[in-house]
Amino acid sequence: MKIKLPLSLLTAASLALSSAAFAAGVQDYQVTGPIAELNDTMIVVEKGAKKERFEITRDANTKASGEMKVGDKVTVHYTMTATNIEVKPAKAEKGAKKEAVIQPQH
Questions:
Q1: Across the beta sheet with 52-57, what order do the strands follow?
Q2: Residue 104 resides in a domain
Q3: Neighbour tally for 1: CB within 10 Å
Q4: How far is CA 68 from the centre of its chain?
């Protein structure tokens, strides 16, 4: 019976930790290819035969495993962060009737 208690506690702790990680986790993306442009504030990586360009901001907190130069092949890990959100109301569907608002009578 002593085996079930620690196992159930371990299971509960694992579920709690995985739920917290899922709720707080931000999707991590990556792109691999040669560096097309590079400066102190951004890196541009070209991907694939069509040379799709990924322009990614970087700062003093960005870690690199070595010195980088244009032409070096790199894998950049990044996340997406919203800087501004403009909201526009959804348009009503064509042919949809507006619902009448019924006021309660007193």
A1: 52-57, 42-47, 29-38, 73-78
A2: no
A3: 4
A4: 25
pLDDT, tens only, 5-54? 454 544 454 545 444 444 567 899 999 999 999 999 999 999 999 999 99
Dump pLDDT digits (tens) for 59-86: 999 999 999 999 999 999 999 989 999 9
Tally Cβ neighbours within 10 Å of residue 39.
Answer: 8
Q: Alpha-carbon distance 67 to 92, whole Å?
A: 54
Query: Which pLDDT value is given to residue 98?
Result: 59
Asked if residues 37 and 45 have their Cβ atoms less than 8 Å apart, the reply is no
53 lies in a domain? yes
Separation between Cα atoms, residue 74 and residue 77, nearest integer Å: 10
Residue 40 domain boundaries = 4-78
Beta strands in 1-106 (DSSP E): 29-38, 42-47, 52-57, 73-78
Amino acid at 102: I
Q: Which two tokens stand for residue 104?
A: 């309660």
Residue 8 tokens, joined: 């159930």
